[in-house]
Fold each of these.
Amino acid sequence: MIGGFLLSYKDESVAVELDDVWFGYDSEPVLQGISFKIKKGSKVAIIGENGAGKTTLLRCLIGIIRPTKGNIIINGEDSKKSSVAEIARKVGIVFQNPDYQLFSKTVSEELAFGPRNIGVPEEFIPEKVHSALEALNILKYAENSPFLLSEGERRRVAIASILTMNSIIICFDEPTLGQDSYAKTRFSELLSNLSSQGKTIIVVSHDVDFVSENIPWAIVLSRGQIKAKGPTKEILTDTKLMDECGLGTPPTVEFALHYRKFDKNFPKTIIREKEVLEYFLHQKNQK
Ligand SMILES: Nc1ncnc2c1ncn2[C@@H]1O[C@H](COP(=O)(O)OP(=O)(O)OP(=O)(O)O)[C@@H](O)[C@H]1O
Ligand SMILES: [Mg+2]
């Protein structure tokens, strides 16, 4: 086993396994032989250029589209044998566009729908709804229509509605889009909290800062194929890989490349602006 990824077969600690998964909406394949295993309780990012196939991959994972070839194993079970509803009990998803997900008259009703739909007894639902509202800081909107909220708030409602389902695997498609820094901090606390409960987290994101700080493992998808997987910091600082996959070099990594000509001790693992500042402050205090 290497970190969030697993190498051995039929391992009980595997949450999700994709084995040579292919899919195309028409004759053109979008996913071309995707294989990976994700360990239970780990946090993994899927990054890649627009159109790489990230959302398609998540759709396959939750069973709303089915691979034309290959297998998806969730918690040891072949998902071919499971209905969408059965998969939904195990895997929750917060879609890239929250509006695809919201339909109820009030935020509270939205959050109650999922658990009610999978047969959670009515007496347990208010508590689940309340704690999800609190976790996403949207308690004050409980009786509002989700459609009258801002985009960032609607995304938080969509996230909260997944929390009430208590899924063991949770996928987020671009969760930090439109979120201010306070909301991002709350979301990163939420991810840690879910992780400490043993949930497996899969985050599709273009937010390099967020991914580098919060998600230790990353998979790079480009034109429907996996180009790399490994520790997030190693992936994001691999300028050749990032360029080849159309992701570009994060600005701080670009800065580090140039600055290292003057200071060869400047750490290769620095990705975030905050880390650059901390490095310089540390250097200054040493003098
Ligand atoms: N419902 C659909 N019908 C036909 N083609 C689709 C459909 N959804 C996506 N595609 C195509 O499949 C490819 C992969 O799309 P996908 O949405 O998975 O990419 P993505 O990596 O999530 O991109 P983004 O970063 O822009 O969200 C694209 O070429 C897209 O045009
Ligand atoms: Mg997408």
Note: Residues 54-55, 96, 173 surround magnesium ion (ligand 2) (CB under 6 Å).
Amino acid sequence: MNDVFNEMDVWFADLHLKNPCIIASGPLTSTPEKIMMAEKAGAGGVVTKMAIPEPMDKKMRAWIHTSGLFSPSDERLPVKKAVKLVSAVRKSTDLAIISNILAFDVDSWVGLAVSMENAGAHAIEINMSCPNLPSEGSDKKFLGQDRKAVKKLTKDIVSHVSIPVICKLTPLAEDIASIAEACRKAGADGVTAINAPLGAPPLDIFNGGRPVLPGVNAHSFGGITGEWIKPIAMMCIAEIADRVDIQIAGCGGIMGWRDAVEAIMWGATCFQINTAVIMKGFDVIAQILNGLEGYMRKMGYSDFDSFRGIALGYLKPSSGIRFSDLRFEVDQTLCNGCGRCGVFGHCTAITIDETAVIDPEKCLNCGMCMQICPRDAIVCLPG
Ligand SMILES: Cc1cc2nc3c(=O)[nH]c(=O)nc-3n(C[C@H](O)[C@H](O)[C@H](O)COP(=O)(O)O)c2cc1C
Ligand code: SF4
Ligand code: SF4
């Protein structure tokens, strides 16, 4: 393994991680075999697949799209299986093992947390945000939308275990920062932001709108993940980092090292990935870590603290942004007339003959042509 990974260690929620890349709870962390693959691939830690008090008949179903996954269901680990998994991977790996738990009443939440601590988990992740299971103990759709219920549950669990407690939050809360604050006040050591938001499944439009997922007889809304949710996840990280004094594991749409840098710039201490590995395999972990390390070297950042949270300095409400006039021009020596910049429906400023020309009178200053040009032929100048 690359030595550099050892220089990238972070402390998150009192856990020492050899690097900030954690495999999120899901189908990648349900067996010792896959957790060992994650370790071999360089991960800094794993959050094991959701443990529940009683067996539940659920199977993984997911719809893959270039921008992410839609998943209405996955297997759950009944407590006995989860205990076996955690004790096995504590023996066979050196990874930080965080146990993701979900129950339906106070006693079983606490019992589950204690069982996972006894099995050897280094920390508990309270799943107050599962998009596929209802919440009990609250009249909200998700427990993580209810500040009082979150505070009570977190307090109950914190007072019964001696390992760190992390709360996994839903982006569907009205104000995620106030939920994170409730977790902090109740003694949580960190939060994971975010779990998958809900979305509608794809339809078989040539077959009466039936499900397209194989082997299901009906639709349900389900979790959406990957690129689809990155802007929501980054906003949640930023909201929490800006207002709450608690460490954050950024999660949602981190598909490559640039996304990881953004999560840290918004204030995350570490990050969790799921869809990136599901779609691209375990090798993506080394790509992300190598990319992150190369980026830090290039930028002269000696550690994560050098750039953690720096984007928050530019965060303002929309009403607080000043817009300056710009001028966009085509460098005729670079343009090859490919036509890519001429496709936008909102733009009547560009004409393409042999090369592109921009009419400044019609230009809206949006800047999109500059972003799309494959030859960097469009320059932005003060207006
Ligand atoms: C098939 C599947 C199963 C998941 N299972 C769990 C789970 O058991 N517990 C949990 O907290 N989150 C679960 N998640 C959510 C992920 O941990 C993660 O929060 C989400 O996928 C967003 O990250 P990503 O964009 O990197 O995938 C699951 C997601 C998927 C797609
Ligand atoms: S996208 Fe760039 S290279 Fe292509 S026509 Fe426009 S300016 Fe020229
Ligand atoms: S900046 Fe926007 S409006 Fe102006 S030329 Fe480019 S795409 Fe058109």
Note: Residues 3-314 form a domain with the TIM Barrel fold (CATH 3.20.20.70).
